[in-house]
Amino acid sequence: MEEVTLLIRRFPAHEFAVRRLYASDPEFKEVCEHYATATRALECWKTDEDKAAEWGEMIKELEDEVLEFLAATARAR
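The structure corresponding to this sequence follows.
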């Protein structure tokens, strides 16, 4: 569950919601898996400025998606 750990580190105030969504929502779980992949890729490519920028942008987009999931969950309550 590296995916959850990475997102909890990034959004610690949302730990409970991240864990709940990861366990119950396949689409959210897929976003989490993509986030972990992108984070690992960024670490591998950190010495290549162009590749690092591409992966950094992907991570930002995935973080925005995660925030959308979290906002939707908060609105549904």
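The chain has a mean pLDDT of 94.
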